[in-house]
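Side project, low priority. Logging it here so it doesn't get lost.
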Amino acid sequence: MTPRLLRTAVAAALALGALGLTQPARATSSDGVHTVRVPDGDPHDRSLAPRTTEPFSLIGVTWDDPDEALDGTVQVRTRSRVSGAWSTWRPLEADSRTPESGPDRDRAGVRGSTQPLWTGPSDGVQVRVAGSRLPEGLRVELVDPEAGSDAVHTGVVDPGAVPPAAGPRAAERPAMTSRSAWGADESLVKDPPAYTGDTKAVFVHHTAGTNDYTCSQSASIVRGVFLYHVQSNGWNDIGYHFLVDKCGTVFEGRAGGVDKPVLGAHTYGFNTATSSVSVLGDYSTAATNAAVRASVAKVAAWKLGLYGIDPTGTTVLTSGADNGKYKLGQKVTFHRISGHRDGYPTECPGQHLYDDLPEIRTLAANAGTPAEPAAEPPGPLDEEETESTEATESTESTESTEGTLGR
């Protein structure tokens, strides 16, 4: 480098430093996810100075040990690529946990994580983490769902001639945006799906983060969550079975067949024999609308209807882990349509959405239509595939009213 170029580079670096910005310090960059290591140091207070980064639209924080909880707070500021303005400090929910069993726990590279936050197009970040016990290996995950030439923008895929479920609580399958339509990169899904026993309950979630998105961005948000779960958390696939945006659009989540009992990664301790639907947005701060409530009800009515289940009833499930709310092996009575907080110590799905669950159960019950009982409800593809550390759930009575209602 010539002396003149060297002086220019030094001057540019000093100018960035004066603005409080540093250049990217990426640990890795792969398939739409860029990572920045948070410097180690104070065991109770760590931070990442404001810096320019690769483009991203969704952010989260992960750490090395997937079994370690982050006992503290995580806050981020991001810089808009459109206006150049910095956001206010925003919290990341730190209550996400690794699945208790199955391929999403056993895969190499599985990490602990916060919930991700949708930021919209951004190119700068600042982070601060504080608490009584901070895990090692903190890093910032910057997800760009538009990376690559194969990004797909989508419309709703109507179920067409798919008939109602052939069960005593039959309901029509709702219109749904398929994985191929929202742009899932199937090359990132390395292992085949695992299957459990019959679906006995549906857990309702929210993705948290922000409600400040347009419904035209929903497919990008779903892609971002998919990339975060696979590339950042180290899971095999997106954790949720279904997702719903604030306009009521339903998205297919985890692969393996929407009408099959696919093992998900959504409610730590109760992933076996359950399904899940997550609403895009934060319903601790915002109320839901009729479109959201109707779509969640339709998904639950159809999924439970495959097994002839009354969505207003209850079921007994056995905890597959010590999850901070229930002990391993503890039997718990749940509503057939329950909130994430019923099974795990979290605020999810937000107080507003949680308060809507009685109405959603009623809507789901009204969505069913009388039909002849099915000879046999859909079950796992292979009996051996249903075995897991939670296998006792599959043999528990689902109509018992014994146990403590998970609320």
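Brief comment: The radius of gyration is 22 Å.
Revisit when time allows.
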